[in-house]
Amino acid sequence: MTDIQELNERIQRESSFVDLLQMEMGKVIIGQKSMTERLMIGLLSNGHILLEGIPGLAKTLAIKSLSSAIHAKFSRIQFTPDLLPADLVGTMIYNQRKEEFTVRKGPLFSNLILADEINRAPAKVQSALLEAMQERQVTIGDETFALPEPFLVLATQNPIEQEGTYPLPEAQVDRFMLKVVIGYPSQEEERMIIRQNIANTYPTVNAVVKPEAIIKARSVVREVYMDEKIEKYIIDIVFATRFPKEYKLNKLTQLISFGGSPRASINLALAAKAYAFIKRRGYVIPEDVRAICHDVLRHRIGLTYEAEAENITSEEIINEILNAIEVP
Hints:
The protein is an alpha/beta fold. Helix content is about 45%, strand content about 15%.
């Protein structure tokens, strides 16, 4: 039996850097608290994040600020239609002096990767990136190289202006732990954004955390206690996306073409543990699952033509499921 009190005390100690990170990011990111929390969850649970929002909502700035706050190597890759897999992973270069091929590593060999506008690059480039995300390794020629730890891909995509884009197939989107959708700031937040950007000095983000602290925190996150009732709650939510009829959600059968994979259940459990860790708790409560549920499931539910014709979104389907399933 886990000693919850001892675990709570340990998490209080181990999670102290979360406040430091949020404080540093808060210097340049105004509002968007939910987005910064989701970035932390990805970092703590070793999961990649897909950020979606219209241009100008600080998606790129948030990722750059996070990398600045960590003593980590950061690479930004702007995805374009003429990008090649070698531009990401690297290639073999012939050395005339030595008369042999040597490996030139690409920008993927960093801790934090910003894949800007991922849907602008063709499928073969996306595949190269997603293979690295899944296997945490890259093969160049006949050599395989492990990617550095921590390794986190933060991809952005623009939901409007779909001309000249290559939408990510469902199987590839499923590799992302969270899909975070960013909305507009409030009027008060926008006023602060204007003031900050027209001032003489712009705040700078200082490096306050070492990568080792994050790797250590990841093992602590996995130790966060999860009761069997919470496990069953997670399984019920995911199964309701697959077999809505069994949960008396008959009207959803015509709207869902496919539900969440086992990866959805794993990621929902891990994200709930990371969320509890951020909230300085050694155990998961149902609210943790509900708080993170939309981000884990929104890109894992396939909509039928009927749903699209009726303008029904995956958000509404998730809300229906959460309202129908009994909270432990």
